[in-house]
Amino acid sequence: GFKKLLRAQSIDDATLSGITVFLQDTYGDYADTQGLRFRSSSSVEDIDGFNGAGLYDSNTGFLFPEAQQAEKDQKKSIEYTLKKTWASYWSFEAFEERKLANIDHRSGGMGVLVHARFDDPLEQNNGVAIYEISPDGADVVEINVQLGDVSVANPENGALPEVLTVTGHVDGSWRV
Length: 176
Prior knowledge:
Helix content is 23%, strand content 28%. It contains four helices and nine strands, in the order ααββββααβββββ. The strands form three sheets. It has a four-stranded antiparallel β-sheet with strand order 6-7-8-9, with no helix packed on it. Strands 4-1-5 form a three-stranded antiparallel β-sheet, covered by helices on one side. Helix 1 packs antiparallel against helix 3 (78-87).
């Protein structure tokens, strides 16, 4: 469907080149087999009245997909992985959830955060951070963290994340 159509489009050469150069500058000293996580972050993922955590896909890609031993990993170039992550905005589940919440689908966008991928046994923790400027001018940062490789958005066995909230008030005081 629509996701497949989006993934079939080419990324503008200058845009892809800029992203590739940045990722090579940042991760070029890593092993050729090092995976990179392309983390999805939609602008309509965590808005008032709508929690879209877990609706969108994060994916693993490689600076050097041709160096990967697994044949399925040899297609996971930067362009392929970016498009796969961006296109997840239009998954059936995400579309239906936004529709139920009366969110205009065209009002959102998909950002991607890229970091080195660590195999699950090596992952010490993972989390999500949300920054909000409240109507009264206060700054609120909420950090949700799980130990090890337990998912924050879709944890198994009922595991709940630790939640740290830091509020900066208009008068300059802070509360944790």
